[in-house]
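As described in the Methods, two query proteins were run sequentially through the folding procedure within a single session, without resetting any intermediate state between them. The first query and its resulting C-alpha coordinates are shown here.
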Amino acid sequence: MENGTLIGTGAGIHFTAGSRYVHGVDGKQIPIANWASGSVCEVQGMVQLSPDGIGQSFSRFIWNCTGQVQPFLVNNPAFTLIDTLILSSTGTTSFIFAGAATQDYFYEISNIQIRQGRLQLSHRTTANDGKVTLSVAGSINIANDVNARFVFADGTASPDAFSYVADVLLAGNLMVEGSAASFHSASSLSLAQGRVVFKGSQQQLHIVGGGNITRGKVDFLIEANTTV
Protein backbone atom coordinates (compact mmCIF):
# COMPACT_ATOMS: atom_id res chain seq x y z
CA MET A 1 0.00 0.00 0.00
CA GLU A 2 1.44 3.36 -1.02
CA ASN A 3 -0.36 6.68 -0.43
CA GLY A 4 -3.69 4.90 -0.35
CA THR A 5 -2.99 2.97 -3.56
CA LEU A 6 -2.69 -0.81 -3.55
CA ILE A 7 0.49 -1.84 -5.35
CA GLY A 8 -0.04 -5.04 -7.35
CA THR A 9 -3.17 -7.14 -7.69
CA GLY A 10 -3.63 -8.04 -4.03
CA ALA A 11 -3.36 -11.75 -4.85
CA GLY A 12 -2.27 -13.81 -1.87
CA ILE A 13 -3.68 -11.46 0.79
CA HIS A 14 -5.54 -13.30 3.56
CA PHE A 15 -7.53 -11.69 6.37
CA THR A 16 -7.97 -14.26 9.11
CA ALA A 17 -10.64 -14.46 11.82
CA GLY A 18 -10.41 -11.44 14.13
CA SER A 19 -8.52 -9.28 11.62
CA ARG A 20 -9.81 -5.88 10.54
CA TYR A 21 -9.11 -3.79 7.46
CA VAL A 22 -10.14 -0.10 7.51
CA HIS A 23 -10.44 1.71 4.18
CA GLY A 24 -10.00 5.30 5.28
CA VAL A 25 -9.50 7.06 1.94
CA ASP A 26 -11.82 8.54 -0.67
CA GLY A 27 -11.85 6.21 -3.66
CA LYS A 28 -8.85 3.88 -4.21
CA GLN A 29 -9.11 0.09 -4.00
CA ILE A 30 -10.18 -2.33 -1.32
CA PRO A 31 -7.69 -5.23 -1.47
CA ILE A 32 -8.80 -8.27 -3.45
CA ALA A 33 -8.28 -10.89 -0.78
CA ASN A 34 -9.46 -13.98 1.01
CA TRP A 35 -11.73 -12.74 3.81
CA ALA A 36 -12.06 -15.53 6.36
CA SER A 37 -15.11 -15.91 8.56
CA GLY A 38 -14.73 -13.47 11.47
CA SER A 39 -12.71 -10.89 9.52
CA VAL A 40 -13.95 -7.31 9.06
CA CYS A 41 -13.71 -4.86 6.18
CA GLU A 42 -14.77 -1.35 7.19
CA VAL A 43 -15.07 1.55 4.74
CA GLN A 44 -14.78 4.93 6.46
CA GLY A 45 -13.31 7.28 3.89
CA MET A 46 -15.73 7.71 1.02
CA VAL A 47 -16.71 11.32 0.39
CA GLN A 48 -17.23 11.62 -3.37
CA LEU A 49 -15.27 8.74 -4.94
CA SER A 50 -16.45 5.13 -4.71
CA PRO A 51 -13.85 2.54 -3.71
CA ASP A 52 -12.94 -0.19 -6.19
CA GLY A 53 -12.70 -3.86 -5.23
CA ILE A 54 -16.26 -4.29 -4.01
CA GLY A 55 -16.91 -7.33 -6.22
CA GLN A 56 -15.74 -10.08 -3.88
CA SER A 57 -16.91 -12.19 -0.96
CA PHE A 58 -16.50 -10.61 2.48
CA SER A 59 -17.26 -11.85 5.97
CA ARG A 60 -18.43 -8.77 7.87
CA PHE A 61 -18.62 -5.52 5.90
CA ILE A 62 -19.15 -2.17 7.65
CA TRP A 63 -20.02 1.05 5.83
CA ASN A 64 -19.29 4.04 8.07
CA CYS A 65 -18.75 7.11 5.90
CA THR A 66 -19.92 10.14 7.87
CA GLY A 67 -18.60 12.60 5.26
CA GLN A 68 -20.23 10.87 2.26
CA VAL A 69 -21.91 13.31 -0.16
CA GLN A 70 -22.24 11.09 -3.26
CA PRO A 71 -24.22 7.83 -3.36
CA PHE A 72 -22.29 4.58 -3.45
CA LEU A 73 -23.51 2.16 -6.15
CA VAL A 74 -22.55 -1.49 -5.73
CA ASN A 75 -23.66 -2.55 -9.23
CA ASN A 76 -21.79 -5.85 -8.86
CA PRO A 77 -23.49 -9.15 -7.90
CA ALA A 78 -20.09 -10.58 -6.96
CA PHE A 79 -20.46 -8.56 -3.74
CA THR A 80 -21.51 -11.25 -1.23
CA LEU A 81 -21.35 -11.54 2.54
CA ILE A 82 -21.06 -14.69 4.63
CA ASP A 83 -21.73 -12.69 7.77
CA THR A 84 -23.28 -9.22 8.14
CA LEU A 85 -23.62 -5.96 6.25
CA ILE A 86 -23.62 -3.13 8.79
CA LEU A 87 -24.54 0.45 7.90
CA SER A 88 -23.30 2.92 10.50
CA SER A 89 -23.42 6.04 8.32
CA THR A 90 -23.95 7.02 4.68
CA GLY A 91 -23.46 10.74 5.32
CA THR A 92 -26.13 12.74 3.50
CA THR A 93 -26.81 10.11 0.83
CA SER A 94 -27.18 6.34 0.24
CA PHE A 95 -25.64 2.90 -0.17
CA ILE A 96 -27.40 1.60 -3.31
CA PHE A 97 -27.26 -1.95 -4.66
CA ALA A 98 -28.12 -1.02 -8.26
CA GLY A 99 -28.54 2.20 -10.17
CA ALA A 100 -30.24 2.69 -13.51
CA ALA A 101 -29.26 -0.35 -15.58
CA THR A 102 -31.01 -2.70 -17.97
CA GLN A 103 -29.63 -5.86 -16.35
CA ASP A 104 -31.04 -7.65 -13.31
CA TYR A 105 -28.96 -7.99 -10.15
CA PHE A 106 -29.06 -10.81 -7.59
CA TYR A 107 -27.22 -10.43 -4.26
CA GLU A 108 -26.69 -12.89 -1.40
CA ILE A 109 -26.11 -11.61 2.13
CA SER A 110 -26.39 -13.38 5.47
CA ASN A 111 -27.61 -10.52 7.69
CA ILE A 112 -28.25 -6.77 7.48
CA GLN A 113 -28.02 -4.25 10.32
CA ILE A 114 -28.86 -0.61 9.72
CA ARG A 115 -27.73 1.45 12.70
CA GLN A 116 -27.70 4.76 10.82
CA GLY A 117 -27.66 5.37 7.09
CA ARG A 118 -29.82 4.78 4.03
CA LEU A 119 -29.75 1.37 2.36
CA GLN A 120 -31.46 1.41 -1.03
CA LEU A 121 -32.02 -1.52 -3.40
CA SER A 122 -32.89 0.15 -6.70
CA HIS A 123 -32.71 3.49 -8.44
CA ARG A 124 -34.93 2.54 -11.38
CA THR A 125 -35.54 5.47 -13.72
CA THR A 126 -37.04 3.83 -16.83
CA ALA A 127 -39.37 0.90 -17.44
CA ASN A 128 -36.50 -0.97 -19.11
CA ASP A 129 -34.25 -0.89 -16.07
CA GLY A 130 -33.53 -4.20 -14.38
CA LYS A 131 -34.75 -5.68 -11.13
CA VAL A 132 -32.82 -6.10 -7.88
CA THR A 133 -33.24 -9.27 -5.81
CA LEU A 134 -31.66 -9.42 -2.38
CA SER A 135 -31.51 -12.87 -0.77
CA VAL A 136 -31.00 -12.64 2.99
CA ALA A 137 -30.25 -15.96 4.69
CA GLY A 138 -30.53 -14.45 8.17
CA SER A 139 -32.31 -11.35 9.49
CA ILE A 140 -32.77 -7.65 8.79
CA ASN A 141 -32.55 -5.28 11.78
CA ILE A 142 -33.25 -1.56 11.47
CA ALA A 143 -32.42 0.51 14.54
CA ASN A 144 -34.81 3.00 16.13
CA ASP A 145 -33.11 6.02 14.59
CA VAL A 146 -34.49 8.67 12.23
CA ASN A 147 -31.43 8.14 10.02
CA ALA A 148 -31.88 4.35 9.80
CA ARG A 149 -33.68 3.70 6.52
CA PHE A 150 -34.29 0.69 4.28
CA VAL A 151 -35.60 1.88 0.91
CA PHE A 152 -36.67 -0.39 -1.94
CA ALA A 153 -36.67 2.21 -4.71
CA ASP A 154 -36.85 5.92 -5.34
CA GLY A 155 -37.01 5.94 -9.13
CA THR A 156 -39.86 7.34 -11.18
CA ALA A 157 -40.51 4.35 -13.47
CA SER A 158 -43.67 2.50 -12.57
CA PRO A 159 -43.62 -1.30 -12.47
CA ASP A 160 -46.47 -3.18 -14.04
CA ALA A 161 -49.07 -5.02 -12.00
CA PHE A 162 -47.16 -8.30 -12.07
CA SER A 163 -43.61 -7.29 -11.33
CA TYR A 164 -41.55 -5.47 -8.73
CA VAL A 165 -38.57 -3.18 -8.91
CA ALA A 166 -36.95 -4.94 -5.95
CA ASP A 167 -37.50 -8.18 -4.03
CA VAL A 168 -36.17 -9.25 -0.65
CA LEU A 169 -36.11 -13.03 -0.14
CA LEU A 170 -35.94 -13.35 3.64
CA ALA A 171 -35.23 -16.53 5.58
CA GLY A 172 -34.91 -14.88 9.00
CA ASN A 173 -36.57 -12.08 10.95
CA LEU A 174 -37.56 -8.58 9.90
CA MET A 175 -37.11 -6.19 12.83
CA VAL A 176 -37.97 -2.49 12.41
CA GLU A 177 -37.16 -1.54 15.96
CA GLY A 178 -39.03 1.70 16.62
CA SER A 179 -41.09 4.62 15.40
CA ALA A 180 -38.07 6.52 14.07
CA ALA A 181 -36.89 3.80 11.67
CA SER A 182 -38.03 3.51 8.03
CA PHE A 183 -38.77 0.50 5.83
CA HIS A 184 -40.49 1.59 2.64
CA SER A 185 -40.44 2.58 -0.99
CA ALA A 186 -39.58 6.23 -1.41
CA SER A 187 -41.80 6.50 -4.48
CA SER A 188 -45.37 7.81 -4.34
CA LEU A 189 -46.44 5.60 -7.26
CA SER A 190 -49.67 3.68 -6.77
CA LEU A 191 -48.21 0.26 -7.62
CA ALA A 192 -45.93 -1.51 -5.16
CA GLN A 193 -42.28 -1.14 -6.04
CA GLY A 194 -40.97 -3.58 -3.44
CA ARG A 195 -41.83 -6.98 -2.04
CA VAL A 196 -40.69 -9.06 0.93
CA VAL A 197 -40.95 -12.83 0.52
CA PHE A 198 -40.83 -14.73 3.81
CA LYS A 199 -39.35 -18.15 3.03
CA GLY A 200 -37.76 -19.46 6.22
CA SER A 201 -37.83 -23.10 7.26
CA GLN A 202 -38.47 -22.05 10.89
CA GLN A 203 -40.91 -19.53 12.32
CA GLN A 204 -39.98 -15.97 11.37
CA LEU A 205 -40.61 -12.77 13.31
CA HIS A 206 -41.96 -9.67 11.62
CA ILE A 207 -41.84 -6.85 14.15
CA VAL A 208 -42.49 -3.25 13.14
CA GLY A 209 -42.33 -0.90 16.10
CA GLY A 210 -44.36 1.87 14.54
CA GLY A 211 -41.73 2.65 11.90
CA ASN A 212 -42.36 4.50 8.66
CA ILE A 213 -43.68 1.83 6.30
CA THR A 214 -46.45 3.87 4.70
CA ARG A 215 -44.56 5.95 2.17
CA GLY A 216 -44.88 4.05 -1.08
CA LYS A 217 -46.15 0.49 -1.24
CA VAL A 218 -44.37 -2.67 -0.10
CA ASP A 219 -46.07 -6.05 -0.52
CA PHE A 220 -45.51 -9.04 1.78
CA LEU A 221 -45.71 -12.66 0.67
CA ILE A 222 -45.50 -15.74 2.91
CA GLU A 223 -44.47 -18.87 1.05
CA ALA A 224 -46.13 -22.22 1.62
CA ASN A 225 -44.94 -24.05 4.75
CA THR A 226 -43.57 -20.81 6.21
CA THR A 227 -44.86 -19.33 9.49
CA VAL A 228 -44.57 -15.63 10.35
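Immediately afterward, the second query was submitted; its sequence and C-alpha coordinates are:
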Amino acid sequence: MTIVKEPTSIKQILTDNKILTKLIKKTSSLQNLNRLFQEILNNDLSKHCQIAQKTKNLLVIIVDNAAWATNLRYAIPDIIKTLRTQPEFKNLQNIRYHISRYSMPPTASPQQKNSTDMQNARMLKELAEQKEKLK
Protein backbone atom coordinates (compact mmCIF):
# COMPACT_ATOMS: atom_id res chain seq x y z
CA MET A 1 0.00 0.00 0.00
CA THR A 2 1.35 3.41 -0.99
CA ILE A 3 1.07 6.30 1.43
CA VAL A 4 0.24 9.53 -0.33
CA LYS A 5 1.62 12.59 1.37
CA GLU A 6 -0.42 15.77 1.24
CA PRO A 7 1.31 18.58 -0.65
CA THR A 8 2.79 21.34 1.48
CA SER A 9 1.14 24.71 1.01
CA ILE A 10 3.22 27.74 0.10
CA LYS A 11 1.99 29.44 3.26
CA GLN A 12 3.31 26.55 5.33
CA ILE A 13 6.68 26.65 3.56
CA LEU A 14 6.97 30.38 4.16
CA THR A 15 5.96 30.02 7.80
CA ASP A 16 8.36 27.16 8.52
CA ASN A 17 11.42 28.63 6.80
CA LYS A 18 12.82 31.26 9.20
CA ILE A 19 15.39 32.60 6.74
CA LEU A 20 12.80 33.02 4.00
CA THR A 21 10.38 34.65 6.44
CA LYS A 22 13.07 37.12 7.51
CA LEU A 23 13.92 37.90 3.88
CA ILE A 24 10.27 38.52 3.02
CA LYS A 25 9.85 40.87 5.99
CA LYS A 26 13.01 42.78 5.07
CA THR A 27 11.90 43.08 1.44
CA SER A 28 8.47 44.32 2.50
CA SER A 29 10.06 46.87 4.83
CA LEU A 30 12.36 48.12 2.06
CA GLN A 31 9.40 48.44 -0.31
CA ASN A 32 7.54 50.58 2.23
CA LEU A 33 10.60 52.76 2.84
CA ASN A 34 11.13 53.03 -0.89
CA ARG A 35 7.57 54.34 -1.36
CA LEU A 36 8.27 57.13 1.14
CA PHE A 37 11.62 57.85 -0.49
CA GLN A 38 10.10 58.00 -3.99
CA GLU A 39 7.44 60.48 -2.83
CA ILE A 40 10.01 63.08 -1.83
CA LEU A 41 12.16 62.81 -4.97
CA ASN A 42 11.34 64.80 -8.07
CA ASN A 43 9.52 62.80 -10.71
CA ASP A 44 12.53 62.29 -12.99
CA LEU A 45 14.96 61.27 -10.24
CA SER A 46 12.48 58.91 -8.60
CA LYS A 47 12.41 56.75 -11.74
CA HIS A 48 16.14 56.13 -11.46
CA CYS A 49 16.75 55.59 -7.73
CA GLN A 50 15.81 52.84 -5.33
CA ILE A 51 16.63 52.08 -1.70
CA ALA A 52 18.88 49.05 -1.41
CA GLN A 53 19.63 49.11 2.32
CA LYS A 54 18.73 51.08 5.42
CA THR A 55 20.49 51.04 8.74
CA LYS A 56 19.78 53.24 11.75
CA ASN A 57 21.55 56.28 10.28
CA LEU A 58 22.51 55.30 6.71
CA LEU A 59 20.56 54.88 3.51
CA VAL A 60 22.12 53.10 0.52
CA ILE A 61 20.58 53.94 -2.84
CA ILE A 62 21.01 52.14 -6.16
CA VAL A 63 21.06 54.60 -9.07
CA ASP A 64 20.67 53.77 -12.77
CA ASN A 65 23.79 55.49 -14.06
CA ALA A 66 26.42 58.14 -13.33
CA ALA A 67 24.28 61.01 -14.62
CA TRP A 68 21.47 60.19 -12.18
CA ALA A 69 24.01 59.60 -9.42
CA THR A 70 25.24 63.17 -9.94
CA ASN A 71 21.67 64.49 -9.70
CA LEU A 72 21.15 62.47 -6.53
CA ARG A 73 24.43 63.65 -5.01
CA TYR A 74 23.40 67.31 -5.37
CA ALA A 75 19.97 66.57 -3.89
CA ILE A 76 21.23 64.57 -0.87
CA PRO A 77 21.24 67.44 1.69
CA ASP A 78 17.62 68.31 0.88
CA ILE A 79 16.60 64.65 0.77
CA ILE A 80 18.08 64.00 4.23
CA LYS A 81 16.39 67.09 5.63
CA THR A 82 13.01 66.04 4.23
CA LEU A 83 13.32 62.36 5.15
CA ARG A 84 14.16 63.20 8.76
CA THR A 85 10.62 64.53 9.16
CA GLN A 86 9.39 60.94 8.72
CA PRO A 87 9.54 58.67 11.81
CA GLU A 88 11.18 55.89 9.81
CA PHE A 89 14.11 58.16 8.93
CA LYS A 90 14.42 60.33 12.05
CA ASN A 91 18.02 59.16 12.74
CA LEU A 92 19.19 59.40 9.13
CA GLN A 93 22.61 61.03 8.88
CA ASN A 94 24.04 59.91 5.56
CA ILE A 95 23.05 58.68 2.12
CA ARG A 96 25.40 56.61 0.00
CA TYR A 97 24.74 55.51 -3.52
CA HIS A 98 25.96 52.85 -5.91
CA ILE A 99 25.57 52.88 -9.66
CA SER A 100 23.69 49.83 -10.89
CA ARG A 101 25.07 47.67 -13.65
CA TYR A 102 21.47 47.09 -14.68
CA SER A 103 18.94 49.69 -15.72
CA MET A 104 15.99 49.87 -13.33
CA PRO A 105 12.54 49.84 -14.92
CA PRO A 106 9.97 52.46 -13.94
CA THR A 107 7.28 51.48 -11.45
CA ALA A 108 6.26 47.98 -12.44
CA SER A 109 2.88 47.22 -13.91
CA PRO A 110 1.37 43.75 -13.37
CA GLN A 111 2.76 42.65 -16.77
CA GLN A 112 6.26 43.69 -15.69
CA LYS A 113 6.14 41.96 -12.30
CA ASN A 114 8.13 38.87 -13.33
CA SER A 115 10.87 40.91 -14.99
CA THR A 116 10.94 43.21 -11.95
CA ASP A 117 11.39 40.20 -9.66
CA MET A 118 14.37 39.11 -11.74
CA GLN A 119 15.73 42.67 -11.67
CA ASN A 120 15.40 42.74 -7.87
CA ALA A 121 17.20 39.42 -7.60
CA ARG A 122 20.08 40.74 -9.72
CA MET A 123 20.22 43.95 -7.68
CA LEU A 124 20.29 42.01 -4.39
CA LYS A 125 23.13 39.88 -5.74
CA GLU A 126 25.01 43.01 -6.86
CA LEU A 127 24.51 44.65 -3.47
CA ALA A 128 25.80 41.53 -1.70
CA GLU A 129 28.88 41.52 -3.93
CA GLN A 130 29.50 45.20 -3.23
CA LYS A 131 29.07 44.66 0.51
CA GLU A 132 31.66 41.87 0.40
CA LYS A 133 34.10 44.23 -1.36
CA LEU A 134 33.64 46.81 1.43
CA LYS A 135 34.73 44.32 4.12
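The chain has one domain: 12-134. We note this only descriptively and draw no conclusion about the first query from it.
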